[in-house]
Amino acid sequence: MRRAKVPDPKNRDGIWYLIRRVPKNFEDLDRRRIVRISTNIAVLDDPRKVRAKVVVEQLNLQLEAYWQGMRDGQSADARLRFEAAQKRARALGTNYQTVEELRGGGDVVEALTRIELLITQRAGEKEDDVAAVLGGEGRPRFRVSDLPGEYEKVQAAKLTGYSDAQVKRWRNPKVKAATNFVEAVSDKYLDELTRADAIAFREWWQTKLVTDNLEIGTANKDIGHMNKMHRMVDMTNHLGLLPVFSRLRLEGETTGSRAAFSPAETKEIVLSPELDRLNDEARDIVLIVAELGLRPSEVCGVLPHQIRLGAPIPLVAIVPEDRQLKNPQSERELPLVGNALAAFRRHPNGFPTYRDKADTLSATVNKALRKAKLLPTKDHTLYSLRHAFEDRLIEVETPDKVVASMMGHKFQRPKYGKGPTLELKARWLSKVLLPLRHEPTPPASSD
Fold first, then answer.
1. pLDDT of residue 441 exceeding 50
2. pLDDT > 90: percent of the chain
3. So what's the pLDDT on residue 447?
4. CA distance linking residue 350 with residue 237, whole number of Å
5. Which domain holds residue 391?
6. For residue 73, what pLDDT is reported?
7. Per-residue exposure over 93-112, b if at least 16 CB sit within 10 Å of its own CB, e if not
């Protein structure tokens, strides 16, 4: 619900009151036209309304929570009844249609067939069966604020392999888009949304882009999320909604590649004593990303049994275990060489501090690199070391298929055979090795 301005305390018979009109979208739930709640504070005891304002604000929050709870409870009950009717209709051998849909279709034969089904199944005496076959439960109504949760239900199978942190990262931009729409327009029912509402959201973003100096892509992400959530929730629940969010993207969006460090800048970072200001795990993840071009999240997610230091060629296996990889090509094995081999020897059990916390790692490292003046531009981040690794491979003319295999990218040609071997990868990695960083010298004993 879009929060209204906190009402000012009103004097009613010498007592300060919270007085509010019931919002239109709750009139069907709360039959009171005007709500009046006493603060129990006498006007004479608080003539300037200092204490009364605090109490009114608390009462107002409680009132809004009450309205929200009524709506959520009603929506949840209606949804459960509707889903039960759908399942029962299927069990009786028919598809579910509401009374309105059956009446609107005008198919007398269909109506008679359903009545005959109730008779033959001897289900006419059961109220739930009658409701299921003859459409006694209306389709659930959803508001804009319901979209992220409903869309997440639709995508449940996709999210099965995601870690908790990955689900959170997947969910947050959807919630943000719906929240922004509610702020820009209102928390309308989906079946009440119009094209004008969607355009108003687009115009809200156009203004925000200018006032907040944001990239056009920021707005287009919100619009895209709203369009996809709206479309999928509509399709899944057979709501028959109009595609109000289609073709609304703003023109002028630019997509540039992420910044990469030069070879000299990468070496400076790897050898910089400033890295020792990081904790051991963060420092060694930086060295692994620089040496092997792994995504920081991939290094953070490595489990102990995926680090095989005793293999004929020491390696790390990037596999979708306890988390989802970015794409199928990301599943791969990389030989451990140089700083990466040394780092994994120091951490044979992986990096538990940052497991499933890649965002925390990136924030920590980027802050340290920025403070040490090791980031040439505002576009450079920890991730830029991965792009620098790819540039080093290209510089020594590594075959495209080998580059794609080590980066975890899709190779744009038909796949034949098993792909590049560990030996072949190790051979090309030997051509782009970084200077070996020595472990920091432990402090001298005070004895």
1. no
2. 54
3. 44
4. 44
5. 263-429
6. 59
7. ebebbbeeebeeeeeeeeee
Backbone angles phi, psi at 41, to 5 degrees: -115, 125
> 3-state DSSP helix/strand/coil percent for the chain, to nearest 5?
55, 5, 40
Residues 216 and 279 in one domain: no
* Domain end marker among 197, 219, 237: 237
Do residues 423 and 325 both lie within one domain?
A: yes
Q: Compute the distance between CA of residue 288 and CA of residue 309 in angstroms, rounded to an integer.
A: 14
**Any idea which residue has 């200077």 for tokens?**
435
Could you read off the pLDDT of 154-171 as tens digits, one per residue? 898 888 888 888 888 899
Q: Say how far apart CA 369 and CA 360 lie, in whole Å.
A: 14
The amino acid at 305:
H
| For range 148-155, the mean pLDDT | 90
Element (H, E) at 332: strand 332-335
Q: What is the mean pLDDT of residues 350-365?
A: 92
Question: What residue type is 205 in one-letter code?
Answer: W
The strand pairing partners of 189, in sequence order, are 143
Q: Is there a single domain that holds both residue 314 and residue 420?
A: yes
The pLDDT tens digits of the residues spanning 124-140 come to 556 667 767 776 666 67
* CA separation for the pair 414, 104 (Å, rounded): 52
Task: Specify whether the backbone of 21 is left (phi greater than 0), alpha (psi in -120 to 50) or beta.
Answer: beta
Q: What does 33-97 look like in DSSP terms, one character per residue?
A: SEEEEEEEEETTT-TT-HHHHHHHHHHHHHHHHHHHHHHHHHHHHHHHHHHHHHHHHHHTTS---
Rounded-to-integer distance, Cα 366 and Cα 368, Å: 5
> Domain check: are 231 and 272 in the same one?
no
- Each residue of 91-125: pLDDT tens digit? 777 777 766 667 666 566 776 777 777 767 665 55
Instruction: Output the CA torsion sign for 346, 352, 355, 361.
Output: negative
* 19: three-class secondary structure by DSSP: strand
pLDDT in tens, 245-281: 999 999 877 665 678 899 999 999 999 999 999 999 9
Q: In whole angstroms, what is the distance from residue 206 CA to residue 404 CA?
A: 38
